[in-house]
From TrEMBL:
Compartments in which it is found: Bacterial flagellum basal body; Cell membrane
Family: Belongs to the FliM family.
Domain called Flagellar motor switch protein FliN-like C-terminal: residue spans: 254-324
CDD domains: FliM
SUPFAM superfamilies: CheC-like (SSF103039), Surface presentation of antigens (SPOA) (SSF101801)
Record's GO cellular component terms: bacterial-type flagellum basal body; plasma membrane
Organism superkingdom: Bacteria
Topology of this chain in the membrane: Peripheral membrane protein
Protein name per its UniProtKB record: Flagellar motor switch protein FliM
Biological processes annotated in GO: bacterial-type flagellum-dependent swarming motility; positive chemotaxis
Amino acid sequence: MSGEVLSQSEIDALLAALSTGEMDAEELKKEEAGKKVKVYDFKRALRFSKDQIRSLIRIHENFARLLTTFFSAQLRTYVQISVASADQIPYEEFIRSIPKMTILNVFEVPPLDGHILMEVNPNIAYAMLDRIMGGRGSSINKVDNLTEIETKIMSNLFEKAFSNLRDAWESVAEIDPILAEFEVNPQFLQMVSPNDTVVVISLNTQVADSSGMINICIPHMVLEPIMPRLSVHYWMQTQQKERLPQEIAALEKRIKSTQLPIIAELGTSTITIQEFLQLDVGDVIQLDQTIQQPLIVKVDDIPKYIGQPGKVNKRLAVQIIDVIRREEENDD
């Protein structure tokens, strides 16, 4: 029996059929106990787990927020972008689902192999182009005859926009998106074989009064090297990687050789600008502490020690006589 919910009228009809003998309860039990066969379509091979799909959605939700900020600043108008869905489908099915003439940006993402595709609906693309050219953001779909200037403006805009993917992916992989190709006809675009699995993240996009979709198509082969990082165990991992002994020794050596500025402050004084302008050779400035009082020794302008002046081998020196505790630092 199927797992769908029956209405009250269907339940009444089923009970009536059982009571009149039209249906045999024993046969229904045998049918229920029989082997269940689940249909599997090998053309739609599922390469990503639900956990990995959720991770990709989280990454691209962050990407959508970055795009919203970027386009709002570039276009100086209302822009709202959010994740609508994330599906894994054959590449051929994705190509059939997008318009015959659209805006296609193909990016390389080194050090990962392969390409990532960003498809922008022409309604959105022309609204953005109109805003950049000083218009109100109206959309005129004439993607089949883009001029060289329009192509250059659009490719530059989307190349800068897609660079935000670097920040969205930084917790998983260090990538460097580079625009490799700008195309308008998906039939001329063959990134992977038709049956290869791709993840398509669809972004709902609103630019002024125009709305449409931006689709990010990521082939499985691109993500394959970093698939373990898309699991929940990677995201929730809290244990820190233990450093090797030689790494710890090298770090200690570098810290010990770091130079710090140390200042022994003899005292301070406050004078007026008039007095400062009248200073001359031989004049004496009276400090606010006597020679019997200890000196404050500062490390990188932070009071750390109490010392007293003296000489070592005929050179001026400061002897540390006490350490300033945290409470004393706060009092200063």
